[in-house]
Design goal:
four-stranded antiparallel sheet
Amino acid sequence: MQIEQIEQALQAPVMDAVIALSERIQTLQDNPEGRIYTAYRAIDQTLTLGYCDNIDAIGEQLRSRDFALLASRRGTRREQRLLLLTLKEIGIASSYSENCFNASPNTLSHLRHLDWPLGKLKPGVNSINTRKRFNPER
């Protein structure tokens, strides 16, 4: 009897996971160029976490605002929205806009745990020697 109850209790979460995975695969198939990315601005240690359909075009926009594109990978807009919601729920506040964050060690740690692309950015970016440690031109 208990096994049946356990199976019944697990049906809904398993189906939710299957549906979410199906939606992600369909979205990636519909938009194979979709990318999630991280960019960093050293002057104020700000991260911007985003989604775009054309990584080259967004790179130019970011450079015009003094951001350096750190890393990107194939992803979906939904993935970016879920990340922003998760960061908000765990108490990480955005700074300038909803997708900009202070590059604190705590924020970087959470982003790594959530498998967000960060490239070579290290958790110690908030020190005085930031430019010595991180050079986006390398």
